[in-house]
Amino acid sequence: MSEAPVVRLEKEGDVGVIIVNYPPVNALGPGVSEGIIDCLNQANADPSIKAMVLMGDGRSFIAGADIRGFGTGRKRLPIGSRTYDVLDASTKPVVAAIHGYALGGGLENAMACHYRIAVPSAKVGLPEVLIGILPGGGGTQRLPRLAGPEVALDLIVSGRHVPAPEAKQLGILDEVLPDGTDLRTAAIAYARKIADIRPLPRVRDKEAKADPAIFDAKRKSIARRARNQKAPYNCIAAVEAACTLPFDEGIQREQALFAELENADEAKALRYAFFAEREVAKLPDLPADVRPYDFQRPAVIGAGTMGGGIAMSFADFGYDVKIMDASAESLNRGMDRIRTNYATSVKRGSLAQDEMERRLARIHPVAGYDDIKDCDVVVEAVFERMDVKKPVFAKLDEVMGPDAFLFSNTSALDMDELADVTKRPEKVAGTHFFSPANVMKLLEVVRPAKASPETLATAMALGRKIGKISAMAGNTDGFVANRSRAPFNSEMVILLEEGCLPEQVDKVMVDFGYPMGPFAVGDLAGLDIGAEGRKRRAAANPNYRKLPIADKLVEMGRYGQKTGAGWYRYEKGDRTPHPDPEVAAIIKQVAAEMGVPQRQFTDEEILRRLLFSSVNEACRILEEGKAYRASDVDVMWLHGFGFPRYRGGLMFWADGIGVRNVYNQIAAWHQQYGERWAPSKLLRDLAETNTPLREARPGS
Questions:
Q1: Which of helix, strand or coil describes residue 12?
Q2: Rg for the chain, CA atoms, rounded
Q3: Which residues contact 627 (CB under 8 A, 6 or more apart)?
Q4: What pairs with residue 554 in β-bridges?
Q5: Does residue 556 contact residue 531 with C-beta atoms inside 8 Å?
Q6: Is 240 marked active-site?
Q7: Which site among 82, 216, 408, 446 is 20 to 30 Å from 691 CA-CA?
Q8: What digits encode the pLDDT tens for the residues 139-152?
């Protein structure tokens, strides 16, 4: 029995319905474009068909190109014979009937049709910039003609998804159907209504007019966010071509700009990140039939900065969430902080006032444990000390129903110890949110030894349900994210001992692509928090490498922004970091006391000292089986630490230098600096076999 075609033509009287069926989301994979063209040709040759409808089976219209085909050298149809060109040239009208998503090539196909209708829940967009390319199917030429150049610039350079009602207002869609309307029936009726209208309304025949100044203004507006990247600027140039060139010449210009990007390092890194984010959800050692529990009644213990952010995360995604703290005063202070955070978003224009009120109404402050005993999942977010967390877990175990899951927002503490204070260790796991919890995308799920598969699956699903990217980590000090970052945090302070200044290190990392330098980030988070972790590690390890400069600042009460001084000084009411001569003097004094000679550093040495130290530690983590994949480490760095996405991730970036080169440099620093630079066995094995770091697995 032959397989069903990926595209089929069905007749409904005088209307031909072209249906794409390429699960799961109707990407433009092998055979799809050819199938659409074949069906178009059949319908145009059939005198009984007056108009056509293009739609998708299943979940979506056409969700975009098959990303796996980019950069592979796969042969593409030439201009003039692509689906976009054949749709545009059809002698009979074609109606795009959109549900689910019409993204990238999906929207480009829809814009090549003569009419576009959609259900209200549909979303459209041209997100190619997010994988380092630009819309290469006429999107940069048609969208400016449909919605205007300024709208096109915004959508193409940001890559954002646009809900159908907004797309109708912008002119992208001709009609949004009422809720509950059957799309196929409505599309066929629409096709009959417009079947005889001539001339056919082709987007290519519209004009795109703009003040030339908008293009330079857009380039300036993205300069900081898009530094080191080429795709956003090529997107602007392509839209500019739509306003200055005839349509066919604009298409040629679009293709040339696309070709510059497809095989560039930026696009390769962004494609890698895209697939790594999908791979991180896979837990290969859990039973295939395990299902997460569908929780409905979450609670958060602790109304501090982290607890409040976690509660906001639940509320932002439609969950009613209870929140409690040790005292009414702390709870009220926490709720005030939540209101302030939401109000700031309203002031910035990123949140509507009525939506703020809806979200706030979902957060329910409660007085004590009896008020949360009916909740089915609890996230503890109290102070990061075992003697504080253990009593909370013991009390939760006592009051919560036997089926409730107990999760801890800890960034480093032993989850086995916490689980063992309960009578339900199989229902306990770590859920490590990153600060600020309502903004940062990463949720690191920590796996205690006795956690059940259902508990781990539920913790992973919890993150996804509140808009996070969930990644699994083994139970080791600092887990995967913070443990892999710890050598970076030490090395950046050790560099100061040897002659660097905080502002020099921060400039190197910002130039590399971080939104903030690590010393400025330290001031934002609070230097006292890092000091607490150093004390704990020093107590546990007599060989722990102390950081006297950092400790000296904390002893002086320089905690960062909250005290007006840390690595930098801050003016009252201003978060701008200012280099502080007092810090330079402290560095010089401590280095002299330590007898460490001072020298000059190149930017490259600073960058590699910081990042290679963490590459080596990530290899140790993998060697110990505390992470599934090197790509999981990359996802954690992208979404937990702001690693520049267009560089792929820590391990992917290091592969660009070469695993042997990385190993050789670390081995040389081992000779120079001692044990902290000892190469991991896994790194040595990868170098000897020339295996890319991003392919590292436990036991590889």
A1: strand
A2: 28
A3: 472, 473, 474, 480, 618, 621, 633, 698
A4: none
A5: no
A6: no
A7: 446
A8: 999 999 999 999 99
Which CATH number, 2.115.10.20, 3.40.640.10, 3.40.190.10, 3.90.226.10, labels domain 7-263?
3.90.226.10
Angle, alpha carbons 221-227-229 (nearest 5°):
110
Buried b (16+ CB within 10 A) or exposed e, 84-123: bbbbbebebbbbbbbbbbbbbbbbbbbbbbbbbbbbeebb
pTM attached to this predicted model = 0.93
**Residue ranges in 556-602 assigned as alpha helix (H):** 581-594
> Looking at 12, 34, 108, 624, which residue is catalytic?
108
CATH architecture of residue range(s) 298-478:
3-Layer(aba) Sandwich (3.40)
Query: In sequence order, what are the residues at sequence separation of 6 or more whose Cβ sits closer than 8 angstroms to the Cβ of residue 482?
Result: 411, 412, 432
- Give yes or no: 582 in active site: no
Q: Is residue 602 pLDDT above 60, yes or no?
A: yes
> Per-residue pLDDT tens for 184-242?
999 999 999 999 999 999 999 999 999 999 999 999 999 989 999 999 999 999 999 99
Q: What is the mean pLDDT of the chain?
A: 95
Fold of 499-600: N-(1-d-carboxylethyl)-l-norvaline Dehydrogenase; domain 2 (1.10.1040)
- Out of 10, 12, 34, 128, which one is annotated catalytic? 128
Q: Which residues are paired to 131 by β-bridges? A: none
